């Protein structure tokens, strides 16, 4: 009878043991910015509790992580890779079947543009277009000259400072009565939005997503009416020596989840999850704002996300995996 009970107990445990054995060790890059750290910790939570993986988060950054994946085949996963900075090298890794792009981790891409506060666009709908903005410089007070409209640009040394200056020229903003304002720093730029919102004043300037600022303060991206000319943007708008800049919207940045080929073939079920896991900028902005308000790190933010966004993450996993994750909560 004792032997029968032991065998029965072993069989009862078999599904759990077998499932855990199906997924082994997985290493994930925990990049050093908030949205990437959130993604890495969400992935860790889901793989550990839903797939039975043993997940190790390792410090990462765009260039070092990409290089390590190409040369050392580790880590297994980079959840939020801004690929444009090293696209040629990453593409070579894919062509040589060493890497895979599994999914656009930001489904609408990294976003840049000129923005105005929503309360201002609600009051003056024409401000949603550059044509309307150019007609009303008086709505965007320059802090040092009441006769000028102000466009907040990027801090010196940032690449977006070059693109902002070139688009300022392309859109003939100086002729319309505008001047670029140097915010001095990232904190200065975000602080100018916060001050404008607190006072419900006019504000116009460059910003990007996903960010906590755009999650906390609702903004409207100004339409240049030009569409996107990616070739001109790359060849001219982003270059200091651009002699004849023409209007173009910012093309979305390619933000993807990169995995090693070894991981994709070794852990096909876990890899399948990475082909579906993606965030919109709107959702990520909201999560980043929550992180900032609560001074939460990636681990705490991931738990908050899993607990409060079942409608999102359950679309990324099979029903039985979702059940295991819910049970873990």
Topology order in helix (H) and strand (E) letters:
HEHEHEHEEHHEEHEHEHEHEHHHHHH
Structural class: alpha+beta
How much strand content do the residues show?
A: 15-25%
What is the second-level CATH architecture of the largest domain?
A: 3-Layer(aba) Sandwich
Q: Runs with pLDDT <50, length 5+?
A: 1-21
Quote the distance from N terminus to C terminus: 37 Å
Mean pLDDT over the residues = 92
The CATH class of the largest domain, by name, is Alpha Beta
The largest beta-sheet arranges its strands as 3-11-4
Q: Treating each run of at least 4 consecutive H or I residues as one helix, how many helices? A: 16
Radius of gyration: 24 Å
Domain ABC-type glycine betaine transport system substrate-binding: 25-307
Protein name: ABC transporter substrate-binding protein
Signal peptide: 1-20
Keywords: Signal
Features:
329 residues; alpha+beta; 2 domains; 3-stranded antiparallel β-sheet; 11 strands; globular; disordered N terminus
Notes on the protein architecture:
The protein has 329 residues and is α+β, with helices and mostly antiparallel strands. Helix content is 49%, strand content 18%. Helix 2 (34-51) packs across helix 14 and helix 2 crosses helix 16 (319-328). It is globular, with a radius of gyration of 24 Å. The protein starts with a helix and ends with a helix. Residues 1-20 form the signal peptide. This is ABC transporter substrate-binding protein. It holds the Pfam family OpuAC.
């Amino acid at each position: 009878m004792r032997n029968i009970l032991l065998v029965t107990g072993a069989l009862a445990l078999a599904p759990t043991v077998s499932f855990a054995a199906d997924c082994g060790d997985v290493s994930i890059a925990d990049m050093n910015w908030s949205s990437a750290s959130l993604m890495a910790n969400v992935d860790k939570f889901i793989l550990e509790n839903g797939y039975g993986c043993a997940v190790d988060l390792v410090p990462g950054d765009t260039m070092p992580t990409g290089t390590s994946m190409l040369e050392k085949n580790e880590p297994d996963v980079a959840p939020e890779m801004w690929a444009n900075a090293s696209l040629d090298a990453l593409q070579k890794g894919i062509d040589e079947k060493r890497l895979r792009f599994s999914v656009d981790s930001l489904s609408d891409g990294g976003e840049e543009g000129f923005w105005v506060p929503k309360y201002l666009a609600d009051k003056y709908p024409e401000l949603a277009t550059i044509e309307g903005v150019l007609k009303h410089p008086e709505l965007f007070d320059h802090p040092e000259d009441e006769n000028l409209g102000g466009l907040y640009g990027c801090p010196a040394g940032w690449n977006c400072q070059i693109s902002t200056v070139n688009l300022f020229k392309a859109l003939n903003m100086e002729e319309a009565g505008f001047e670029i304002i140097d915010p001095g720093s990232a904190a200065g730029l975000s602080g100018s939005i916060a001050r404008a919102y607190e006072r419900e004043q006019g504000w116009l300037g460059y910003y990007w997503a996903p960010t906590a600022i755009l999650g906390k303060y609702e903004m409207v991206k100004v339409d240049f009416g030009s569409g996107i000319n990616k070739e001109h943007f790359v060849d001219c708008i982003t270059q200091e020596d651009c002699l004849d800049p023409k209007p173009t919207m910012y093309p979305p940045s390619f933000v993807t989840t990169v995995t090693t080929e070894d991981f994709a073939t070794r852990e096909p079920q876990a890899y399948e999850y990475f082909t579906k896991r993606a965030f919109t900028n709107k959702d990520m902005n909201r999560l980043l704002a929550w992180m900032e308000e609560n001074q939460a790190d990636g681990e705490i933010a991931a738990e908050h996300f899993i607990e409060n966004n079942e409608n999102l993450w359950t679309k990324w996993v099979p029903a039985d995996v979702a059940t295991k994750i819910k049970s873990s909560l």
